[in-house]
Fold this protein.
Amino acid sequence: MLGYYLYLKWPTGVDVELSRPVDQTIQSLIVLADKEKKINPDPYASSRYRPNDTLYDPVLAIQQGNWAKAEQLLKPMVDKGNATAMFWLAEITYRSSAFSGSGGAALFEKSAKLGNPYAALRLSPKYNQYQCEMRMSSYCDDSWSKIGIDLLAKRASSGDLSAQYALLYYARFDNADEKYFYEFINTVKEGMNENYFRPLRHLISMYLKREHSSLFDSSVNPLSEKDKKELLKLLFYAADNNDIDSLNVINKRFKNVLSSERYLNQSVGRNLSVLDNKHFVLTFDYFVAKGKEHREFVVQGYAVAKLFATYEGNEYGILTTVYQDQLEKSGITALTDDEKKNADLLYQTYLNKQKPVIYIDEISGAWGDVIY
């Protein structure tokens, strides 16, 4: 038993590299971030889909939790043989009820046979064990593992960076040596050059979750302030290219090393028209911070809270209450009836012009299993 425990706890090559000072292991990324300091004028530079793309509206509906709308939009595409639409319809179907697994699995199978690697991997007991056992046992088979990985490799060889990252993501438990780590770093760098920041956020998560190297201490090994500031440079590089999830990570995990929140708030303010309800904490923090200086931001924040609540099905839903509670906790005077009327007018304007970015993809899926 002790031998098996030591085997499990013995530091991997990745563990060793993560334990080193950040500026020693990812210097090339830091140099890139320091060199390219400019704001990308394209708000959708890092978005999985753009508003004019066929899949934008249905995937946005999935992202916002409006799956009935997504299903309505996806079905005509599925009927026309769109393999990606099949994946997404399967994704919101196979775990939606105790009896929906086979319907979703049939769609995954059809999508996989049309060449979708992510659908194939959903049918792999190796990569989707629990759902295969509980919901899709009659469709799942070990053969789908190789099929899915081979399809990813084919896409990666043709320049698909998300497929290249997915190969590393799915291989992370099979191969965790030093070579793997630097292959991962190379993919992060390529992603930074192409405004694809999921690998970067994954790297940040690896650093935040790294454990002590001791065989008998599995607690998190916290980053030094210096290391956090180096990682912050990378996150702001992504934020300058309008990667909303990187802004979210900064707001949630790196505020304590910011010399000032001014640049963070500028970045959020620049992206207000592409935010949605899944980033309500980031957005409300912005409006509270600005509202302490200028009252009009308090009103604008309430309008945005109504907008986000609308995405969840009710403009007077829980998010408007959350926003008002946050104002109270921050010592900001509650909105007057007149201010709420003004916010209602703003809300109508925002409702017509808001076009959020898409940050979910086939790797993360519809259920938030992958948060990078």
User: Anything to note?
Assistant: The chain has two domains: 2-226, 243-353.
